[in-house]
């Protein structure tokens, strides 16, 4: 039984979890840093507890401080959100050792699936195709060069513990691999505290398609796929569900492979299996699993009608899955636009300030997940994601039109965001046709603005 839920996160996801807790009749307690006293999540929660100073290392990443706070406020469960401690097996273990429920899979599963090199091995065992690459982490240069001969160039050197688009380097040939390997290893060591790297063939012209799963430890179901190919620096900017690139035959194979892998490890909780999809051949390859709720989960909620955050809390509390695969169907189309406090005209430089004026779009099929409010002062310490604008409609074409309508209603004064970029992006003919891959957005951003559709400016001023 869960009665008191400690939420160790900030921003829109902390608020999202507070909302799920309230609907479940749980007492929500937000654990926050000194810099986040005045956030909407803290205001909306039943209780709040400060876990340390602004720097994440001393608060949101501070395991002993979180465990102490959980004890002091008599929480019986801990939700880690995404980022921060959400994929830390040490944290999951510490929560369990303190006699509390971790809202997510067991530490052993995070160990196995959160480690990208190990997850590849597990996928192979479960019969899921992976990108050709090294069978496990590569040690010395000699081993890397010989593996690379089989894998083929260009290839990627990827940190086993990487995430958030960081810890990935390209090697075009043996010379570059020789140069990049030691750099990649020391970078991985300093960024993730784990210097292991592995090699993966670079799949050109791929689409990023991922499958949402939910397991209760015995059985797993999928909630279909999300298309997340529109990325900058390997970070998603715009996501949709379903994917415009796959038909029902491929959808079935892809989603069933995700369920097979989740069941193979006895997965408990919400999780996402990420794949690269080659449109020319119809092949898909597993790349990694995220053992947590993801930023873009709302598009899946919109097209399936299920509340994933509620469901992940229920399975963590020990409730068996109450739904069968056949209960989950796709309806309509959903799009998420990430509104980051960054200036797209100045190389996405972080933009900071106080919200002076804020008008959210509302009306049919519009959902906003955000911690912004008028008077809110953005702290400079954290991720730039400040809002997610999600729209739903009965078809992709209608959803794109609705996205434009919603952005036209939106008004923000105080700092620059990526809202205006999304307004132009959705008018692009390739985006309208659903014809893009993982490098499309970077190419599009490099074009002169005069190439792009002429649209009404989004009202978003400094
Ligand atoms: P999603 O698919 O949910 O967007 P991301 O991999 O982008 O997943 O991660 C979500 C959040 O967590 C982002 O804010 C990202 O910067 C952060 N994040 C994820 N993994 C790591 C990591 N290993 N190190 C630092 N930040 C991470
Ligand atoms: P992270 O843990 O940082 O999310 P991923 O392994 O999920 O890292 O890769 C992030 C992005 O990098 C993918 O969405 C894709 O755009 C690109 N990418 C990853 N692996 C490959 C690959 N083998 N070939 C081409 N692009 C890749
Ligand atoms: Mg990823």
UniProtKB/TrEMBL annotation:
<dbReference type="InterPro" id="IPR005479">
    <property type="entry name" value="CPAse_ATP-bd"/>
</dbReference>
<feature type="domain" description="ATP-grasp">
    <location>
        <begin position="120"/>
        <end position="317"/>
    </location>
</feature>
<dbReference type="GO" id="GO:0004075">
    <property type="term" value="F:biotin carboxylase activity"/>
</dbReference>
<keyword id="KW-0547">Nucleotide-binding</keyword>
<protein>
    <recommendedName>
        <fullName>Biotin carboxylase</fullName>
        <ecNumber>6.3.4.14</ecNumber>
    </recommendedName>
</protein>
<comment type="function">
    <text>This protein is a component of the acetyl coenzyme A carboxylase complex; first, biotin carboxylase catalyzes the carboxylation of the carrier protein and then the transcarboxylase transfers the carboxyl group to form malonyl-CoA.</text>
</comment>
<keyword id="KW-0436">Ligase</keyword>
<keyword id="KW-0092">Biotin</keyword>
<feature type="domain" description="Biotin carboxylation">
    <location>
        <begin position="1"/>
        <end position="446"/>
    </location>
</feature>
<dbReference type="InterPro" id="IPR005481">
    <property type="entry name" value="BC-like_N"/>
</dbReference>
<dbReference type="InterPro" id="IPR051602">
    <property type="entry name" value="ACC_Biotin_Carboxylase"/>
</dbReference>
<dbReference type="InterPro" id="IPR011764">
    <property type="entry name" value="Biotin_carboxylation_dom"/>
</dbReference>
<dbReference type="Pfam" id="PF00289">
    <property type="entry name" value="Biotin_carb_N"/>
</dbReference>
<dbReference type="GO" id="GO:0005524">
    <property type="term" value="F:ATP binding"/>
</dbReference>
<dbReference type="InterPro" id="IPR005482">
    <property type="entry name" value="Biotin_COase_C"/>
</dbReference>
<dbReference type="GO" id="GO:0046872">
    <property type="term" value="F:metal ion binding"/>
</dbReference>
<dbReference type="Pfam" id="PF02786">
    <property type="entry name" value="CPSase_L_D2"/>
</dbReference>
<dbReference type="InterPro" id="IPR016185">
    <property type="entry name" value="PreATP-grasp_dom_sf"/>
</dbReference>
<dbReference type="InterPro" id="IPR011054">
    <property type="entry name" value="Rudment_hybrid_motif"/>
</dbReference>
<comment type="subunit">
    <text>Acetyl-CoA carboxylase is a heterohexamer of biotin carboxyl carrier protein, biotin carboxylase and the two subunits of carboxyl transferase in a 2:2 complex.</text>
</comment>
<keyword id="KW-0067">ATP-binding</keyword>
<dbReference type="InterPro" id="IPR011761">
    <property type="entry name" value="ATP-grasp"/>
</dbReference>
<comment type="pathway">
    <text>Lipid metabolism; malonyl-CoA biosynthesis; malonyl-CoA from acetyl-CoA: step 1/1.</text>
</comment>
<dbReference type="Pfam" id="PF02785">
    <property type="entry name" value="Biotin_carb_C"/>
</dbReference>
């Amino acid at each position: 039984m869960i009665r008191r839920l400690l939420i160790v996160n900030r921003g829109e996801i902390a608020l999202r979890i507070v909302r799920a807790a309230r609907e479940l009749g749980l007492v929500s307690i937000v654990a926050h840093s000194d810099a986040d006293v005045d956030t909407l999540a803290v205001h909306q929660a039943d209780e709040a507890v400060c876990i340390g100073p602004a720097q994440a290392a001393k608060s949101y990443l501070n395991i002993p401080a979180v465990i102490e706070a959980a004890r002091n406020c008599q929480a019986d469960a801990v939700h880690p959100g995404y980022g921060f401690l959400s994929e830390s097996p040490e944290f999951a273990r510490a929560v369990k050792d303190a006699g509390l429920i971790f809202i997510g899979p067991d530490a052993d599963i995070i160990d196995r699936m959160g480690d990208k090199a190990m997850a590849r091995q597990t996928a192979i065992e479960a019969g899921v195709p992976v990108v050709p690459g090294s069978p496990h982490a590569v040690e010395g240069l000699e081993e890397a060069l010989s593996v690379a001969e089989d894998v083929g160039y260009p290839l990627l050197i990827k940190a086993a513990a990487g995430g958030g688009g960081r810890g990935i380097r390209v090697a075009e040939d043996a010379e570059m691999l020789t140069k990049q390997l030691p750099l990649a290893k020391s970078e991985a060591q300093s960024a993730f505290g784990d210097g292991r790297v592995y090699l993966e063939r670079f799949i050109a012209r791929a689409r990023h398609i991922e499958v949402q799963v939910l397991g209760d430890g015995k059985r797993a179901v999928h909630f279909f796929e999300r298309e997340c190919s529109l990325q900058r620096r390997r970070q998603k900017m715009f996501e949709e569900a379903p994917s415009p690139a796959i038909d029902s035959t491929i959808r079935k194979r892809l989603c069933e492979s995700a369920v097979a892998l989740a069941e193979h490890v006895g997965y408990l909780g919400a999780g996402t299996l990420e794949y690269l999809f080659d449109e020319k051949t119809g092949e898909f390859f597993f790349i990694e699993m995220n053992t947590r709720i993801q930023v873009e989960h709302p598009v899946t909620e919109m097209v399936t009608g299920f509340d994933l955050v509620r469901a992940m809390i229920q399975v963590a509390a020990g409730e068996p899955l109450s739904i069968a695969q056949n209960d989950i169907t796709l309806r309509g189309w959903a799009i998420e636009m990430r509104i980051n406090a960054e200036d797209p005209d100045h190389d996405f430089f972080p933009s900071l300030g106080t919200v002076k004026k804020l008008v959210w779009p509302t009306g049919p099929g519009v959902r906003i997940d955000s911690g912004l409010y008028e008077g809110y002062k953005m702290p400079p310490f954290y991720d730039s994601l400040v809002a997610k604008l999600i729209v739903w409609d009965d078809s992709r074409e209608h959803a794109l039109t609705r996205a434009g309508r919603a952005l036209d209603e939106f008004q923000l004064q105080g700092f620059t965001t990526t809202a205006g970029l999304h307004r132009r992006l959705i008018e692009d003919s390739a985006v309208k046709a659903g014809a893009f891959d993982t490098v499309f957005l970077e190419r599009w951003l490099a074009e002169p603005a005069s190439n792009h559709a002429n649209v009404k400016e989004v009202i978003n001023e400094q």
